[in-house]
């Protein structure tokens, strides 16, 4: 098993998104990119998770994150890219500020107080 070079993976992600338009899950993206890598070298191997992390580094790729409810503690850091999360506030009926959610400024991740577990990813090429 060989770990493919990041630049090669980036090129393939861009290429595939150009062909497919939108890819609607991390697993699907990982599979498509994995298959293409095997064409280059049959010993290349990549996980959907690593594919997604590399996709996050490409500026003209848009990633949407769908979230679901969870019982676990809210994340300290962005569960998608590990960056800092920024709290979002709203005023309640008593005019007090309450935290209603949080978002990441680096990627497109945002969650609310109850629904924050990443459930599904959507990848799209934005230009070029
Ligand atoms: Zn993030």
Bound molecules: zinc ion
- Tell me the fraction of residues in β-strands, as a range: 25-35%
- Largest beta sheet, briefly? 3 strands, antiparallel
Low-confidence stretches: none
The termini sit apart by 33 Å
- With strands numbered from the N-terminus, the spatial order across the biggest sheet is 1-6-2
The helical percent reads 25-40%
Query: What's the order of the H and E elements?
Result: HEHHEEEEE
Tell me the domain tally. 1
Mean pLDDT: 92
Q: How many separate helices?
A: 3
So what's the overall shape?
elongated
Short overview:
30% of the residues lie in helices and 31% in strands. With 128 residues, it is an alpha+beta fold.
Walkthrough of the structure:
By secondary structure, the protein is of the alpha+beta class. It has one domain. Helix content is 30%, strand content 31%. It contains three helices and six strands; from the N terminus they run αβααβββββ. The chain has helices at 6-20, 26-40, 48-56, and strands at 22-23, 61-69, 85-91, 97-104, 110-112, 115-125. The strands form two sheets. A three-stranded antiparallel beta sheet has the order 1-6-2. Strands 3-4-5 form a three-stranded antiparallel beta sheet, with no helix packed on it. A hairpin with a 5-residue loop joins β3 and β4 (97-104). α1 (6-20) crosses α2 (26-40) and α2 (26-40) crosses α3. The longest helix is centred in the N-terminal third of the chain and has 15 residues, at 6-20. The two termini are 33 Å apart. The mean pLDDT is 92.
